[in-house]
Amino acid sequence: MAFWSNNDIEPVRKYRFKLGNKWWWAKSVSKPSFDIAVEEYLLINHKIKYPGVVTWSDIEIVIVDFTDEDNKSVQARHLYETFEGRLSYNYDFNGLENEGFSKKIMIDGVNDVMDAAGFIIEQFDANGNRIEKWTLINPMIKSVNFGQLEYSSDDLLEISMTVAYDSAKFEQT
Question: Where are the domains of the chain?
Fold first, then answer.
């Protein structure tokens, strides 16, 4: 039965979501998705298809930057400072000789940007009850775009990020 003919059910709304425990300024986030490779096996003159490797697609996030009481950019500064001493963005390289560039460093960076609970995307109903929860397994920030400035617009400054991950856990309440 369709939702428009039943008063007891409600469609899920796109704008009722939360990213982590503190990211209320997130403008949009894509939900986890995956592709399954299809392999073919040739048996005489028949092609038989069977499932192959599952590949999880990257998550795209758009957040709005804002300033603090000192009139400094909060999100841009936080994202940059999170990775400044961990990756090759800091040309000093002190302290990186033994650790190097590793997956653990990238995952720790995401945990610093998000919160200790990990990378979580939640959806809610009209009453504020959680209806869906996605937890990304081993998320890594793959790219950050600090936005575009222009005199012809008074839009909010947006920062976009791409997050790669190994898999995702889905929960419903």
Answer: 13-31+58-171
Helix (H) or strand (E) holding 161: strand 158-164
- The residue with tokens 């961990």 is 86
Beta bridge partners of 42: 47
Distances (CA, A) of 167 to 98, 138, 140, 171: 29, 8, 12, 14
Give the contacts of 127 (CB within 8 A, at least 6 positions apart).
none
pLDDT one digit per residue (tens) for the chain, 173 residues? 566 677 777 888 888 898 887 676 788 999 999 999 999 999 999 999 999 999 999 999 998 887 777 777 777 777 777 666 555 544 444 555 445 556 666 676 666 666 656 788 999 998 889 999 999 988 888 888 988 999 999 988 888 989 999 999 999 97
- Measured in residues, the chain has a length of 173
**84 φ, ψ (degrees, to nearest 5):** -55, -45
pTM for the predicted model, two decimal places: 0.76
Query: What is the number of H-type helices and E-type strands within the chain?
Result: 2, 10
Q: β-strand 140-145 against 34-43: which pairing, if any?
A: unpaired
Q: Are strands 140-145 and 158-164 parallel, antiparallel or unpaired?
A: antiparallel
